[in-house]
Each structure stands twice: as C-alpha cells, then as structure tokens.
C-alpha cells in the first residue's frame, strides 16, 4: 500500500479508500442487523468470525467491538436447518441441530434442537438460545461460546493497513461477564462487555462453557448480551424488554408511511423487503430520521445517499426528507479546510466516528469531497416543499440553502466559466468527487486520465434544477433573488447544450476536463441530465435511445458505462456495472420527457434482478454482463446489502411508471400518463401523502391503459389523472 504524508499524520493513498475485492461478501450467505449506530454481520448460523479476514462482526460507530462469536455443542459446530431475518422486527432467527457425536454416551444426529434469536437495541446485541432434547433419554450436554474482540477500525476491516494501533486487554469481570478493553490512539476508551445468563460452568477470557441436563422433551434457555461502550456504558436490559421496545420503536417509525399491495406476490415481497431495508438503515436523531447508506461499509451519514433515498421516498414518507435536510443543514461547512475538502456552504459527503477518522488517517471525520451533494441538497429542499408545503422547515434552513447557492457560484465555479467543477484540495482527497467516485471513473475516449478541475455532466443538471427550485422556494417564502436564480438556470441550460452535447456520440459527454476538453465517453451520467430537466427535448430522445441500446442496457439495467468504451469492465465498481439507484434516477428522467415505455423496461429489468437476489433484495450494485437465459445477474463481490438508495429505488421506479407527482401548491396529487409494468395487473397505494392530505388509490392495468379508482381520501387534495 502506498502511503502519503498529510501534515504529521500518515494517510492512505485515495485509491485505497475503495473496498478491496478480497473481502468478498458473496462467497457465503451473510445476515445483517442494524439499530442506531450499531450493526452486525453474521453468517447463516448466527456466528461471526469463524472465517478469518471477512466483514463479519459487531460494529459500533465504525469500530468492530466483537470479531468472533462461535457457538458449539459438544465441541462441534451445529448443523443449519433454517436462517431468516425478520422483515418487520430486524431480528435474526436461526434453527440448528446437532451432528452425530461419538463417545461413551453417543449423541445421535439431529436429536437436539437449538433455536437462536439475535437482535440489536441501543448499542447492545441480545441473543437467546433455546435448547430442546428430542431423544428418549436424559442427556447431559456441554455447550460453549468462543469469542474475541479486535477493535479494528472499519477501514482496517476493508483492507487498509496501519503502522500503529492502540492497546487491547481482556478481563473476566465476574462469573457471568467478560470485558474487552481498547485504549485507542485517539484517546477514546472503547469496551465490549459480554454477559451470560445463567452463570456459565466456566468462563475465561475467550470462552464460556455451559453444562446442563435435559430430560426427554425438556428445554432450557441461555441468554447473551454484548454491550458496546464508547465513552459511556450502554444500558443492558433483559432480553424480552429490549425486544419489546425494539419492536415498538420499529412500528412507530413506519406507522404513517404509504404502503402498497399488488397483484404480484413477488413484487409484494420485493416492496416489503425494500421497506424493511430502508427503515432498518434509518437512524433517528434529534434532527429527524436519516437513512444510513449501507451495510457493512457505509453504515453512517452520507450526504448523497441520504438525499437520493429521501427523493425516492417522498411519496412514501416525506419525514425522511425533512430529517435529511435538517441533518445536512446542521453539518454544512462554515469555513475552508483543505484536508476535508470543505468550503463555506458545502454540504457533507461523509461522516465517520472511528479511530482512523479521529486521527486523520482517513479524512472522513467530517468530509466534504463531493461536488454534487450541495446542489442536490437544494434540489431536495425544493422537492420536499412541493410535496408537503412545509414552509416552516424550508424557512428554518433557508440560510443553509442560501449558503449552498453561494458555494455553487463562488467555490464550485472558481474559473468563472459557468460550470461547477471539482478539484481535490489535498493529497488525501478523493480523486473523483461525483457519485462515481472511483479513482478510474472519469477519463477520455482513449482511456487517458483527465487533469482537473473536472466539470461532470450530471452536476450541471443538478445545479440547473437547484437554481430553478430555489427560485420557486424564494417566491413562496417572499425572499429576493428568484428572478436572478431563474435567469441563471436558463443561462446554464444554454451553455450546457453548447459544451456537453456530442452530435457524433448522440449523447452528452461524461465531463469536461481542466482544459475544457470533452471526455467523449458514453456513460449513464447523461441520463441524470434528463432527471434534472436540463436536456433539450429533442436531445433527450437520443440520450434515451443510447442508454437503452444493447451497449447501454444489459437486460437487467442500464450500465454505468457503455460496452465498447475504453475502460468498460462489467465487473468494475463504476465502469460497466449496474446500480439500482442510478437506474431509478434515469427512469424518472425518461418519464419526465415522456419515455414511459423505456422507464418501464428499466423497472422490469430491475424487478427481475430483485427476484433473483437472496431475500428479494436489490444490492448496492451488480455486474453489467448481458442478461443470459436461466441465469440471474452476476453479483459484485463487495456490494453493500442492504443499501438505502438501492432499496428505495423500488419506490422511485414505481412513481416514475405511475407518473406520480405531488404538487402541494396546487393541492394536487397527479398521475401523469400512468403506465404499469407487465408483472403488475393491479396495485393499491394506501396513505399517499400530499401535505396533510392522505389518499388510497387503486390502479388497474388494461393492456397499456391504466384505470384509477380513489378508494378513500382525508384532507382536501385533488386527485388528477392526466392522459
């Protein structure tokens, strides 16, 4: 690994922030749990760390507090019967049984049943074992847990190497408790406290042994807790009380959301999984709900991911957008700091809490190296106001919106050419700072690297939309500047067409480099220009055709980079893979310009992909190989799953097909030229939000036509179907 010096701190070369493929997440069936700042990655047995150098573990605030937990009966690993993550309770249930155990008192196979249930609640992992004897005789059994805590920073788990680490120690605190301590180099004391009930027969630094006797048909229970203490101890509850509170909190989070039910059981499963994933990833704070990006690599605040998730969820639950806006406003940069790529008014890219971030070994404690998040923040504010009419929230963050607009014009466009560019501020900065932030994702047609500053195609679209929506917000708030913002947006539209359109390619170029030379590359970025509304209508048609031809569309979705381009690689992170959120953004853009059939093809492709995934879950991304009969999409080896913007893409795709528009200023919920995919005959949407109004709607497909029936309505919203 190449290391670079930034001040007195040694940091990794930016390319090494990327997740290395040796930490594959698809070689074994993994299960994930999350609550608040903690998450767990376990194998299908409910164990973790039985295979070295994996992403398994119990994590809290970007640190692995438990690196091994293995359950054994009579010294043997149990046999798996079933392993299932609950959709509605964020708990893992595992059914296990014994292999044959030879010895003086032979234990026949499959005669001891072990039920294992695990969940997280307020920085504590809870587990209950229920053990039952199905033999015809009384049995003395020995069960043991083996455990360890390595306190690795998440970036170490991802593959980064460190020169120094803090001090780890372990103590048996009592007959029923073991504590692992870590004194970090950042001065933070971290501790994992493992508790057992009943008291084990023997308890050591890395093992707890239980001995018990069970008569025929008898059963017993063992309880385990792992408390993640950082600065202050976590409060450990009894298993049943914690589980009750966890379930109640989850039900409360989803009590007022819109729901759907369709004629397709498979789509119902996909939608239920998407809902469960989004609300599993949502973390509550005083500022409101925020969807953490994904497990395992990105379980924290990411500005871009949170914004797109909130956009897709606006018709389902606008409170997500409110929480995202308030959180990003509260963390907006107020001063320049080259080490974190911050300038006044810029919106957060990523926030980390681990030791490496605290020490500056990675720059992500509060990192602002995204060129697109600031205009996207303004876009989300405008879209949220359209959907809710919540002038109070928009007024409260208007100083942040105003600061974001100033950043766009002053820091975003330093050379004054009218385009927003990025240029890494320090040697530790991300090389590329759009949503495709791999080090190799921006290049020229011959494959050559680019020299910055870089003006990305999609970013100009976001700026255009941000200024138009800011003008609308200013008018509704009675603020000055609306005319100037609208004029600036139109000027940008003209300049964008002149500089980014490539007649020969038939699409918008990927970017302009520092010399204003176009990167003549066919990429999915051009589809975001349709999403933002900056594309000329006649050119939108050609962009659509280019994205949906064989080079662009794999059959499962639109590739990030078209086949035939110099760096095309369907197994890469950003140069030929398929990302569900990217496809949802593009499908919304297609629908915006009237290309509903193409939007539906994208929807159908991703639905078919979800059908082929474990748990019907859309992952962060998958490989961009052409669809082949009888085979599902090839998984990307280190894709996060669940991932918030992938899960919420389901709702963005559905809204694109149905033409669902929330226009609170006109008190109208609109369905513009609704079209339904072939896998749906009927769908019922319940509790759809428009300001304070709520509506239930049934939509039925007759060929290519859709009939709409209003089932119920509270409030005064008008329901319009526009054909």
From TrEMBL:
Pfam families, sorted: GDE_N_bis, MGH1-like_GH
Start and end residues of each Putative glycogen debranching enzyme N-terminal domain: 33-224
Database matches in SUPFAM superfamilies: Six-hairpin glycosidases (SSF48208)
Domain of life of the organism encoding this protein: Bacteria
Mannosylglycerate hydrolase MGH1-like glycoside hydrolase domain mapped to chain residues: 305-613
GO BP annotations listed: carbohydrate metabolic process
Ranges in a coiled coil: none
InterPro entries listed in its UniProt record: 6-hairpin_glycosidase_sf, 6hp_glycosidase-like_sf, GDE_N_bis, MGH1-like_GH
The protein, known as: Amylo-alpha-1,6-glucosidase
The organism of origin for this protein: Acuticoccus sediminis
Lineage of the organism: Bacteria, Pseudomonadati, Pseudomonadota, Alphaproteobacteria, Hyphomicrobiales
